[in-house]
Structures are given as structure tokens and as C-alpha cells.
Amino acid sequence: MEKLSDLLTNEVHTAAIAGHVRPDGDCIGTNTALYLYIKKNYPLIDVKLYLEEPKAALLFLKGCDKMISETPADESVDLFISCDASEKERIAVAGNLLPLAKKSVCIDHHISNTGFADVNIIVPEASSSAEVLYGLLEDEKIDKDCAEALYTGIIHDTGVFQYKNTSPYTMTVAAALMKKGIDFCSIIDNSFNIRTHRENQILGRTLLESVLMLDGRVIVGTVTHRDMAFYDVTQKDLDGIVAQLRLTKGVEVAVFIYECEPQVYKVSLRSNSDIDVSEIAAAFEGGGHIRAAGCTMYGTDHDVINNLMGVIQEKVSKEHD
Ligand SMILES: [Mn+2]
User: Fold this and answer.
1) Each residue's pLDDT tens digit, 229-268
2) How far is the CA of 17 from the centre of ligand 1 (A)?
3) Domain 197-319 architecture
4) What's the CATH superfamily of 4-193?
5) CA 68 to chain centre
6) What average pLDDT does the segment 29-51 reach?
7) 300: three-class secondary structure by DSSP
8) Residue 320 C-alpha to ligand 1 middle, in angstroms?
9) How many angstroms separate the alpha carbon of residue 25 from the centre of ligand 1?
10) What secondary structure letter does DSSP report for 68?
11) Gap from CA of 304 to ligand 1 centroid (Å)
């Protein structure tokens, strides 16, 4: 398959698009872009967009108002497409439709994705799922709304073209999207620069209480369940904290842990060096990319940090041998 049009044949009457749990900007952007593209260019296809409610800063995207956040009744759609989900267990809202679909498609860029659909388009070198999807669409059929969604996906996964996953091709895609007349200044501001007061408070608190470990090569920031209740924040308000931790001078690995339920920690890992944090996450049944990965761990914050540091220490010392 070279283009998505090969799959969007006359036999396709119904389609479902679904993202992953706890959707980030790439997930929302890519799935929304695909929805808008099919809706506009294939009006005969009855397409539905299944996404968990994203953080408010992403709701400016057209198409978000059409998303369905409740699990649908079992049905057999002609085409089921999931973008940015690294494994089928991570598909949100409409995962029940995957095994029932006449044909399923997985569009992704996670190196850990082994391919769970009938058609798998997985490009680990790509900066984002949005970049992968762009390559499957026909440029002349992409309108401004679709371009805004794709651009949002790319800037989220590249930190506005700052991370190493940004390639010359990423910039070519971004340029093509810019030509659609998108308001890239406000997309970037809305996505990254503007924080609610609560988000600023929890960010500030986490930085204030962060600790350096392993001779300053690792930084750890922690938010407990109690902190979340005190500041009245949810996981959506914690975006960007690990990115700020990573920007600490001398740090090779940034670790951010937050307690989503008592004694259940979500762990985000970022790497500034050649240390592959997806391997660290994999040690705890997580996954991700070389420079950005995550996993879920159990116990107290001390247990979690101790267990993590055991694995991180090995990697850091190997790196310095
Ligand atoms: Mn992604």
C-alpha cells in the first residue's frame, strides 16, 4: 500500500478511527486529521472518530467536536483505523471494534509496535504518527483544518522541531502544511506556551522538589496522589513537566513520576544522551521511543524510584565505560 486511497475503496461504507488511551497531541492531531480527510474527500463513507477527551488546549482542532468518547456497541465496520497506538491493548474507546472489523489498519511510529492490524504502516524513523499519515494522504486533498491537525501532531511529538526525531523530511512535511495557510503561531502558543494557573503551580512545585541523582546525571520529579488532590489537578495538567525536567544542565535522563491512583505510578522518561529510555521502560513492561518512554509502576514513590534507579544506573554506567 502506498496511499490511503488504496484502502478507501468503493466497498468501504463504514469506518471507525480510534486513538490510544490518555491521548497526547500527536494522537489527537493524527486521528482528527484522518477523520477530517475522509469526511471531506470521501463523503459516502460513514466515518466515526473515537477518542478519549483530550486536554482542553487541543480542543481548538476542528473535528474534536465530532469525537465520540463512549464505547460503541459491537458492530462490524468495513474499515477500522488506529493512529498512534503502539499496541492493541492501548486503543481507547473503540477497541472492541478492532477484532470485528472487515479490515483493520494501524498507522504508527512507535519502535515497540509489532503490528496488530491487517495492514500495518509503522515507521519508527518518523517524528510522529502525523508525519506517517501525511505520507499516506494526497497533498492536494488536505485542507486547512486537516493541515492544522497534522501540524499539531508533529509539533507535539517533536517539541516544536526541537527533539532529535525531527528530520529534514519532518520539515518538508511541516512546510507543505504551512502552505495550507495554517495559523502556526497560535497553534504553538495554544499547544505549549499557555498554561492554566494550576498547571503552572504543579509544574513549579515539581521543579522545586525535584532531586538530582547519580552525580547529577539523572533528575527525578514526583507528584503524589495527595499533591494532585491539593492542587486539584488531573494527569492532563501534568503535560510538559518532564520536558522541563529534561532541560536541567548536566542531566542525561529525566524521570517524572505521578501517582494516578494510590500506589500506582505513571512514569515518564526522557533522555538527553544515547541512553535508550525505551529499554528502561521495557524493564517495567512499558515502551516508547529512544528519547521518550513510559511505564506504570506500583508501590510507594520510594519503591518506584529505587526500582527505576537500579535499571537506570546500569545504563548510565555502561554509557560512561
Ligand atoms: Mn506519537
Assistant:
1) 999 999 889 988 999 999 999 999 999 999 999 999 999 9
2) 15
3) Roll (3.10)
4) inorganic pyrophosphatase (n-terminal core) (3.90.1640.10)
5) 19
6) 98
7) coil
8) 30
9) 8
10) B
11) 25
